Amino acid sequence: MIVDDEPDIIEFIQYNLKREGFQVVTATDGLEALNIVEREKPNLIILDIMMPGMDGVEVCRKLRGMDQFKRTAIAFLTARNEDFTQITALDVGGDDFITKPIRPRVLVSRINALLRRSNRGVEEGDDQGRIVLGDLVINRERYTVEKGEITLELAKKEFELLSLLASRPGKVFTREEIFNKVWGPEVIVGIRTIDVHIRKLREKLGDSYIKTLKGIGYKFEF
Fold first, then answer.
1. Residues 95-139: tens digit of each pLDDT
2. Does 27 share its domain with 115?
């Protein structure tokens, strides 16, 4: 699915994806996208950030709040390239960040990589199920985290980062490992992205679970 308020952009992306064998549906604003996506249930959504009415960030936030779209691959499309925009887009649950002007071969390559990672994540979640560490229960099938009697609200990347660290308590994950496993080597994000997500996880979990090893990476303890 392509969501953009510029018809020329939609036409350009749609042409190149259909040529590669993809089935494509489109929307020109956020509200229309939310109506169509529930009917079509796309495997991947390309969202423009700067749209009138409801922007792409808000659309993504609403989609990630629906159980059926928690794992759907979402790529943001924008002409802006600041670290802040990238962090905001990825923090609400985006999987990648594609900047304009768009190069068709790069676009198709990124989309194929996103779909491979999305399918792999479903298989891994189904195989591994829950992680139970003390009063913390991480359910990889439902994308939920419970701490005692409380259900925590985590963005998609926060959940995936926590799942990675908690999968091997005590193991130190380097920043490079985290980037590759959570965002993928194809995704280019700002250097502060991991730090921002770790900070937000600590705000929700408490400071005792995730330890920083300065200059190396992070580990999970309980």
1. 888 878 888 988 888 888 788 766 654 444 434 478 888 788 898
2. yes
| Global pTM exceeds 0.85 | no
Residues 114 and 55 reside in one and the same domain: yes
Reference 51, options 12, 93, 5; nearest CA is 5
| 75 and 177 part of one domain | no
Co-location of 96 and 190 in the same domain: no
CA–CA separation, 180 and 7 (whole Å): 34
Residues 97 and 156 in one domain: no
